[in-house]
Amino acid sequence: MQFDSLTFLLFFAIVLAGAALTRGWGARKNLLLVASYVFYGAWSPAFTLLLAGASILDWMLAQRIHGAGSSRARRTWLATSIALNIGTLALFKYGPFLHANLAVLLAGVGVHLDPWSLGLVLPVGISFYTFQSVSYTFDVYRRRVAPIQSLRDFCLFVAFFPQLVAGPIVRFTTFAPQLVAARAPSWSGLAHGALWMLWGLFEKIVLADTVFAPVADAAWSGLSGLSSSVALTASLAFAGQIFCDFAGYSCCAIGTARCLGFELPLNFRNPYAAVGFSDFWRRWHISLSTWLRDYLYIALGGNRGGALRTYRNLMLTMLLGGLWHGAGWNFVLWGGLHGALLSAERFWRERDGRMLEARGWSRPLWAVTTLIAVVALWIPFRSPDFVSTMQFLHAFSAPWTPLDFAAKCAVVAFALLLVVQWWVRDRTLDDVIARVPNWLLAPALALLIVLIVLSPGETNAFIYFQF
Amino acid sequence: MLSSTSSSEQRALAWVWLTAIVVAGLALLALDRHWRAFGMPAGLIDSKQLWSIQRDRVYGDDPRSVVFIGASRSAYGIDPKQWRTLLPETKPVMLSINGRHPIALLRDLAADSNFHGLLICDVDTHGMLRRWWDMQQEYVDYHRLRWTPNWHVHRLMLNIWQRTSVLANPALGWKASLQRAFEGGTPYIPVTRINSSRGGEILFDQFDADASARAFDEGAEQKMHEPLPPVAEFWQTQVRSSPGCRRFSAVVVRSCSSSRRYPAVWRRWNGNTSIAPLIGMFLPRWTAFMPCTPTMCQRCRRCPCRIIHTCAAKIAQYSRPCWFRRCSVAVGSVNRSRHRRSAKLSGHAA
Fold first, then answer.
1. How many domains does chain A contain in total?
2. Quick check: B111 pLDDT over 80?
3. Is the same domain home to A411 and A456?
4. Contact B12 A438 (CB under 8 A)
5. Phi, psi of A301 (to 5 degrees)
6. Which residues of A touch B15 (CB under 8 A)?
7. How many Cα atoms within 13 Å fall on the side-chain side of residue A454?
8. CB interface of A with B, residues 111-150, below 8 Å
9. Does any CB of chain B come closer than 8 Å to the CB of residue A450?
10. Same domain for A157 and A302?
11. Is residue A300 part of a domain?
C-alpha cells in the first residue's frame, strides 16, 4: 500500500479507529501486526509469506545465537542467519545481475550460459526489512540486546507498516522499548502525526510527482537530441524528485507512526544544505548511513589500522551502499564515486582541517561544491546503464535551448527547496512547526491541502520501493 | 515529545487543523463551482489503472470474455454495456486505448496462457508497421509490474472522486492553471466521456467539427510525405500464412473522413487495392453524419452500438475454443469516420 493512495486513507482510518477502540496492549499489537501484513499484502499477497518466513527464521536464529554455549557456535548461527538473509536478498535482487555478469565472464572463456529464466519479481521493501532483521541479529550476537521472547513482537518490529517498505531502517534498540510500554492513538499524537503526513504528501505529490518527475522523466526517456539546458534542468529536477520522493515517504512514515503512538527516527535533515560529503551523508538517508557505519564500516575495521585501511573501508562501504540501492553497475559507480569523494574529503581534512570547517568564504564554496557533486552523481544513479549516463553527460556540450514551462517550474522549485533547506538547516519539522504562529500555520496547512488536491496526475510509485 | 504537549497547546493545534480543513474545503468548493460554471463536466478520466481493472477481467470462462483491443475507433465505437445487453452470455472487456495502436497488447494476450476468451483486434495498416508495435507496451508493463490490489482499490475510490468533483481533472490542477496564467489559454473541455467499464462515447453535440477537420488536414499533410504502409490485404496474407496460425478471420475496411486532404492520401493508395474506398468528403461536415440516424442503428439509435449490430451475429456463431486467439487481426484502414466504417463493415460481415 502506498501512502499517497486513497486505499491507504481508508486503511489507515480503519486501523486508527481499531487501535483507539481496542483495549489491552497485547490486542493492539495483534491488530497492528495484522494491519502491517495487510498493508504489505496489498502489493503482493504471496510475499507476506516470505516476510513471515524471514521474520520467524531470524527470531529463532537470534535465540540460538543467544543460547549457544561456545563462541564458535554463536558465529555459526550468526553466519547462518546472515547467509539466509543476504542469500534471499541476493536471489531476488541480485540474481539476474550476477547471472548476466557471470555469463559475460564465462563467454570470455568460451562457455555459454543460458539466460536467467527464474523471472522472480523483487519483493517490495526487501532491502529495508532485511537490513532491519540483520541489525537485530548482529546486536544479539554482540550482546548489545537480549533476544526478544515474543515472536509476535519481533514480527511487529520487522513488519511495522509505517516503516516496512522504505524505512527509516529502525534499530531494535529504538523500537523494543516502544513494544514494552503500552501505546495508543491520542489527539496530540494525531495532530502532530497528521502534520508530518501532510508535509510528506506535499513533498511526494506536489513536488516530486507534479513538479520534478515530469521534467526528469522526459529528459531520460529521450536522451538523443537532449540540449544542455534540458540536461541541466533534468539533473536538478531529479535531485529534487529523489529527495522529495524519499523524504516525503519518511515524513509520512514518521507521521503515521506518531498517530499510532510510536516514534520513528529522523531519516533526512536538509541534505542539500550540507557542507561537505560526510555532512551530506549525515543528513541523507540517515538510517541507512548509520547502519552502514555501524554494521559494515566498523565491522571492516573502521578507521583503526591506518589511513590506507580507512580509505579501503570507506570505499568498500560506499560501494556496497551503492549496490544496496540496486543491482546494476550504475549504482556501484554512484556508490564508488561517493566513496572516493568521502575519502578525498577525509584526506584533505587530515592535511588541513581548517580549510573545510572554517567559516568565511570557504564554507559557501564547499557547500556549492558539495551540491554540484551530489547533483552530478544522481546522473548515473538515474540512468539505466553506462551508455545512457554517457549520453546524458554528452548533452551538456550540446547547444542551449529555451526551457519550457515545466522545466522553468522545476528550476524555481529546486531553488526554493535549497533556500528552505538552508533556512531550516539544523531544524526538524517539529522545530519549525513550534516556531510558526498558529494564525500562520492554519492557512499554511490549508494551502498544502489545496495544492495536494489540485495535483491529480498519475500516481507514481515511491522511487525507493524498488530498492 | 508528544506526551509533554500541554492541553492548551493541544486545543490550539486542534483549532489550527479545524480552520485549515474548513478553509481548504471552502476554497476547493469555490474552485469546483467556478469550473462547473465554465462548462467543465465531472467524469471519469482514463488511465493505466482504469485500464488495468479491465485487463484483470479477461480471465474466466463463465461467462466467456470478449476482449476488444484497438485504438480510438473501437474505444469510442463499441459500447460494452450494449454488447452485454445483446450477448448476455459473454463478458465484454474494453481494452482499446485512444491514440495507441494495439499490437503490444495483442502480443501480450496471445502469450497469456490463462486467457481463453475471444479477442477482437481493431488495427489499421499503419498500426501493423513494426515501429508502432510498442505503443501500448507501457500499459502492458504497468499491469505486469506495478498493478497491485492497492491500486485496484485506489482506482475504484478515485472513480467516485472523479465523478464527484471536476477538480480531479489534471487540466484543472494547480500546475496547469499556473501555466495558463503565464501563457494564456483556457482549459480544454472534453468532448468524450468514459464509463467505469471503459466504454467510450463522443459527445457530438459538443464536437468542433471544423477544428477536427483542421487537425486531420495537418496530420494528412505530414502523411503525404511518409511512405504508405502496405495495404490491408498484404497483412491479411502475412498473418494467415504465419506459423502457428490456427484460425484467422479479418474484416477489411476502407474509409476516410470528410477532411479535404485525406482523399489525396487515399488516391495514392487506390492503385494498390481492389476495395473501393468510402469517401466522406461528399458530406459537408462531420456533424452531418455523426449524430445518430436511423440508418446507423435501427435498434437504439445510439452511435456506440452500431458496430455491435453488424458484428454480433457473426461473432455469436463461433464456438469455443476462441476462433482467432493468438493470430487474429481485424485489419482496417486509417479511418476517421466511424459511421462510414460501420456501413462498410455491415456490407462485408453480412
1. 2
2. yes
3. yes
4. yes
5. 125, -15
6. 438, 442
7. 22
8. 121
9. yes
10. no
11. yes
Select the residue of A5, A189, A405 nearest B154 (Cβ to Cβ).
Answer: A5
Give this prediction's pTM: 0.81
| Pair (A170, A211) in one structural domain | no
| A378 or B13: which leads in pLDDT | A378
B92 φ/ψ angles, rounded to the nearest 5 degrees: -70, 135
Final residue before a domain boundary, out of A135, A152, A182: A182
Q: Are A68 and A205 part of one and the same domain?
A: no
pLDDT by residue (tens digit) across A239-268? 999 999 999 999 999 999 999 999 999 999
Give the residue-averaged pLDDT of B155-162: 92
Q: What amino acid is encoded at B155 in this protein?
A: R
Interface of A with B in 230-269 (CB under 8 A): 258, 263
Q: Which of B184-188, B274-278, B284-288 has the lowest mean pLDDT?
A: B284-288
Residue A197 and residue A155 share a domain: no
Whether residue A162 is found in the same domain as residue A246:
no
A446–B21 C-beta distance less than 8 A: yes
Residue A298 lies in a domain: yes
- Per-residue pLDDT of A263-282, as tens digits, reads 999 999 999 999 989 999 99
Q: Which pLDDT tens digit goes with each residue over A96-151?
A: 888 888 888 888 888 877 777 666 777 888 888 999 999 999 999 988 999 999 99
Domain boundaries in chain B? 48-153+194-349
- Comparing CB atoms, the residue among B14, B151, B167 nearest residue A191 is B14
Complex ipTM value: 0.83
Structural domain of A425: 189-466
B52 and chain A in contact, CB less than 8 A: no
Name residues 134-153 of chain B within 8 A of A (Cβ): 145-146, 148-151, 153
Instruction: For residue A24, give every residue at least 6 positions away whose Cβ sits within 8 Å of its Cβ, in sequence order, or none.
Output: none
Same domain, A172 and A249: no
Q: Compute the nearest-CA separation of B32 from chain A (Å).
A: 11
Domain match, A22 and A69 both: yes
Is residue A1 a part of any domain in this protein? no
